[in-house]
Amino acid sequence: MNTHEIILLVGHGSRHAPGNEEILRFAGLWRQRHPQQDIEVCFIELAEPLLDAGLDSAAAKAERVIVVPLILNAAAHVKMEIPEYLEQARTRHPKTEFIYARHLGANEQVLRILKRNLRKTLLEMDEPDPRNTGVIILGRGSSDRIANGEVAKMARWLYEESGHDLVDIAFTGITHPRLETVVKRQMLQGMAQISILPYYLFTGTLMERIKRQIMHLRTQYPQLRFGCAGYAGFEDEIFELLDQRVAEARGDGYETRMMECDGCQYRSGAEAHGHGRGHHH
Length: 281
Known about the structure:
The chain contains 9 helices and 8 strands.
């Protein structure tokens, strides 16, 4: 007999097997937090089971499937590919309800991770002066300007809440600027050390490339010190965001869309004083 609901966690998939293994381990940890939930895993590409097989498997066992993308930014996979597979699955399984949850996004939880990772890199460099310590948030890169803009948004939020004169963005591929270019700019602007914050969830071929790039940069710029944070996938905030996305998909009292003023200090202050309406900034 079918269960009522399965949560289908959708990872990107990687040619680097340890990255796929980390997603499976992440799913196991999420199950431990919610032993009453049926959580399955599939991948968009490069790893098994692929998305269509994952949808079929979940539909064969459940009346409702909540599809949750384990992805930070909404680019083509989130906006086009997963919805396309979902429509095909609805045709194949007309008796199963498929609900598409939101991606993780750029928000306060992700900002907390970035701030914590920045603090770790500064401690590793013996807490240098933030005014001459550059920060680079290093994203994957996309042809989707909104996805790239989410990285830029996080950089601005981090700048607002840190004492660093320079908080820039760079990308590992597809778009620009690239890491080497931003490092050169920050050096010319007087930075003595640079903290690099990868905007990634798990290891993979690109995380391995970042490690090699930083080795080359240390050789190229021996006068600079470099700190590099880890990726974010196993942080508590990622689990919290997924819980929130599932609750939104079920309609359990969450707004279904992130408000444009998410993270606004004026909104937070107004709510603290009992004022729920109006922006005057």
